[in-house]
Design a protein that fits this description.
With 166 residues, the chain is of the alpha+beta class. It has six helices and seven strands.
């Protein structure tokens, strides 16, 4: 799975308690392990679902809430001023689609600390495939992944590593 460093700046969701460990590092590559608690996976899942619900079309059969106040609880989410049960919302949006968005948000927000590095093609690669990550992810359960950042040499590094002509 690939994520873009440029996506990190636009990410509105932040993960606060992710544990990121640098497993190996050299001049060309950094290999990381990222682990999240079950609480964090649940929080990110709910935020992503809420964001997707805001952009979803109106749902027939559900009346708009009067007053326009947002109401969120475990069994239903706010959807365009409409209370829709979470299970129904997941079915409507597609559970696999929601899970993909959640995993992408987790990757983008947890690796945001590394955005000051010059990463080759601005891409972060996970060791696991997208299908493996989807199979591992369950909201409310611990979740982890491995990532590789391929570093690009800056002009200063290239100049200092090449032999000087005298």
């Amino acid at each position: 799975l690939e994520a873009s460093i440029t996506d990190l700046k636009d990410s509105a969701i932040t993960v606060k308690d992710a544990k990121t460990v640098v497993e190996s590092q050299d001049d060309e590559k950094i290999q990381l392990r990222v682990d999240l608690t079950g609480k964090e996976t649940q929080v990110v899942f709910e935020k992503v679902l809420r964001n997707l619900a805001r952009t979803a079309p109106p749902v027939p059969g559900f009346r708009r809430q009067k007053g326009g106040k947002t109401c969120v609880n475990r069994d239903s989410l706010f959807l365009c001023l409409v209370m829709v049960p979470t299970d129904f919302l997941l079915q409507m949006l597609g559970e696999e689609r929601v899970t993909s968005f959640v995993i992408q948000e987790i990757i983008n927000s947890t690796l945001g600390d590394f955005e000051n590095l010059t990463v080759k093609d601005n891409k972060i690669n996970t060791t696991q495939t997208a299908e493996e990550l989807k199979a591992l992810f369950v909201p409310g359960n611990e979740f982890g992944f491995n990532a590789t950042l391929e570093l690009e040499k800056t002009e200063a590094e290239i100049a200092s590593s090449s032999p000087s002509e005298e």
